[in-house]
Amino acid sequence: MRRQFAKAAGGAADEPLGAATMSDDADHSAVTSRSVARGLGTTVLARLGAVVEIVAQPLYVLMFGLAGYGLYAVLWAAVNLIENIFDLGMTSAMQRTVPQSASDVEAAAALRTAMIFGVGPCILVAALITLFAAELGPLLNVAAKDRPLVIPAIRIFVWALPLWAFVEIATSALRARMVFGAEIRLRIVWEQLLRLVFAGLFFAGGFGLKGLFIAHLCSLAITAALSVRLLARQYSFADLWRGPWDGQTSRDTFWAGLSILPSNVITRLFGDAPALVLNMLLPGAAGAAAAGLFTIARKLSSVVQLVRIAFTYVMAPLAASAERRDRRQVADIYAYATRLIAAIALPLAAVLAAGSASLLSLFGDQAQAAQAALVILLFARAVEAVLGISAPVLQVVAAFRHQLTASIIGVAVAVAAGWLMVGHIDPLTGVTLATAIGLVVMAAIPTLQLAVVERLHPFDAQFPAVALRGIGVTIVAGLAAMLADLLPDPVALPLLLIIAAAAIWLALRFALPLADRASLGKTARRLRLIGPADR
Question: Which long-range contacts (CB under 8 A, 24 or more apart) does 464-471 make?
Fold first, then answer.
């Protein structure tokens, strides 16, 4: 079963569906670990845009200063939070309804509903914020030299809100069609690299910090325009205007979005709210700097988060398809994904945490104040990655009401932890630790729910051996990284990358069972994860 190919996850990523949709092939293909592996490869490449973003952050700090970067981080965090509220959950809704659509007309109806209810409210909110920018500006703590820029920046940058909603929904629509690689050009070439290029050009042109906001809008506008072309390959635009606008698929999409919305909002709170809280807690430039420091720690820790996100993107539509066929297929890919995540995320987090001082040196001496926050977030993201794959499975196999439990409890725990700690320890460390506790709790609860309610859990007979071997590799890699971190930064940084790559390879090679390694296909053979004796 593990050796089968599932065309739904991989094939014809760029072929138009036309009259013959992908469901014609998918209906006859089992959803297996091989399906996950094929989708994962292209999705990881697509999410490498996050790595490009991480590389760009030190350049932004260098060009615009830590306080200026902090203002940008606060405004982008606010845009992300608002978008996750007013897109009404439409990105997640399509992961449930599109894979279960019976025809191209139904899939187009889901896309139409998502665009209307996802982008429309964001346009209205952006217009309102533009009108009331003068009243909102004083709420932000910034450096004195940046104060005159705040209101114009809000009026400019708020239009990233509908653009970002459109991009998020468009790329989600592609993933819902199980086309996992289509984001590569958008997320890396256009959105991230062009943002960096535009920022550099505007900075050289004397625009100052304002140029960073304009650069962000330019990159999003280009990404949105190009996403239309990709959508046209996977959805029939003619069908967007056909059929009843209040049909069953439209209603299912709308209500699925609303049911998932609270969970989405709370998940985004853990990523962006801490920067806003720190900005409010500390006055003036200190508030902007603290928001910038948290954002730096969050961006660096997102290297580990990338592992979970890549699997989440693949698991949601595959689990929906598997659930339609056989619950045992869901259990199989759930356990497989958890083993693979553990083998990658644990050693990666340990190496990055041990080398955190060298990593933060990229952002200047001021960034060393974020070391404790970075270490906390790295290990929290590792635990979240191992447990967090349960969330997309829960979204597509369980009743809607079960999806709120983890979000509500997770945010309540984080708020309570923050209330107890802030004021007794450094605000940056306290807010970060509260966030980390909430992340772990929110990831663990869906795992328990699936085990208790759905009788699904990922910890089969193979997992203990994988965990023990993986932890052994993690400890050795962490010690090696600690020694490397003592060296001068120009030597330590490339050495840390080598140690991280070696640790992941060792964990994959010696922690995973043969069937899991074999499911990686050509990648396993090229990386020598399968020896001659295994073939």
Answer: 465/511, 465/513, 466/339, 466/342, 466/343, 466/511, 466/512, 466/513, 467/342, 469/507, 469/510, 469/511, 470/342, 470/343, 470/346, 470/347, 470/507, 470/511, 471/346
